[in-house]
Design brief:
This protein is α/β, with parallel strands linked by helices and 183 residues long. It has eight helices and six strands, in the order E-H-E-H-E-H-E-H-E-H-E-H-H-H. The protein has a six-stranded parallel beta sheet with strand order 3-2-1-4-5-6, sandwiched between helices.
């Protein structure tokens, strides 16, 4: 995954930005928080969201999306082995987890040069900082909405953070670096 790192260039400023979130659809992943934040975001921005993953909460999340009148904006894509291809279509990557011990998907988003909004949980808090992502408190709908708004309102800053995250990923998590450390 990380051997194919690329910087996609500037942050996309499409009329309908594409937000991507990836993970098991279980309570601790915080997708309900993301959906509620997107309801707030919808008052200011048009967007579409792709949620990649499956799990026991899928039905509840689809119901919540309907209750929030977001169904037209959201694609529940199910499980996918081609995360890179989906991340390459993303304008923003969102990680709303309430608990995330590491978060390989954070490295995947960093490696694809996608701006990131993540909760400040264990793993993302160790990998990311304010130069590489927008970090928000877990479980805080307002903070998640604000983080997404900040990236969408300031494409130049989103691009700077994505570039910084890509450079950090190359410096600390590329195959050559990790294999050398392991050996």
């Amino acid at each position: 995954i990380l051997e194919e790192m690329e910087n996609r260039g500037s942050f996309a400023t499409t009329a309908e930005p594409h937000i991507v979130a990836v993970g098991r659809l279980v309570g601790k992943k915080g997708f309900d928080i993301l959906l509620k934040a997107l309801k707030m975001l919808s008052k200011k921005h048009r967007f579409r969201l792709t949620i990649v993953g499956d799990g026991i909460e899928r039905g509840n999340l689809e119901q919540l999306a309907s209750e929030l009148d977001l169904t037209a904006n959201i694609n529940f894509a199910g499980w996918c082995d081609e995360i890179q291809a989906i991340l390459d279509t993303a304008d923003v990557f969102a990680l709303p987890s309430l608990d995330e011990p590491f978060g390989i998907v954070i490295l995947e988003a960093m490696a694809r040069g996608v701006p990131i909004v993540s909760t400040r949980t264990q793993g993302p808090g160790e990998i990311l900082d304010e130069k590489t992502a927008i970090l928000v408190e877990p479980g805080n709908v307002d903070a998640m909405a604000d983080g997404l708004n900040r990236l969408l309102d300031d494409p130049a800053q989103a691009s700077v953070r994505a570039t910084n995250a890509l450079a950090l990923c190359r410096a600390k998590y590329s195959r050559d670096v990790v294999v050398d450390q392991y050996l």
